[in-house]
Predict the structure.
Amino acid sequence: MLKKYNAKSYNCGHFVKEVLRKQFNLDVAMPCDVDGIRAQSRTIEDNISGLAYPAAKIFEGAGILLENRSLYHIGIAVEIKNKFYCMHNVKSFGGVLRHTLQELTLYDLKIKGYYQWKMQ
C-alpha cells in the first residue's frame, strides 16, 4: 500500500519505524507523533542519542541523519547492487523517495551522520 506523507500520522519518523519493523525485524521507539516540520526536527534532534548510536560507516538499515536549513530529518540506508541510497519520507514531495547519497545535496540535504539503531 502506497502511503502519502502526513505530518502527524506518516512523517519521516513513521516511515523509518515501519521499515525497521517490517524489513529488519527491529522495534525502535521512534517518537514521531508530532505535527509540523519544526516539531519533527526538534524531536529528532532531542532523541537521536536515545534511539541510535553513531556509526563509523553506512550499512543496510542504518539511520541517516540529515539536515536542511538547520532542520533535522531522518532516513534509512538501503543497498541496491552494491550502491547505497537514502530512503526518506518528504513533505515537499508528498511521500517516500529514494536518492543516491550524492543526490541529497541537490535538495539541500546534508548528511550529519549514520546511526546503528537501539532496540526498544
Remarks:
- The radius of gyration is 13 Å.
- The chain has a mean pLDDT of 92.
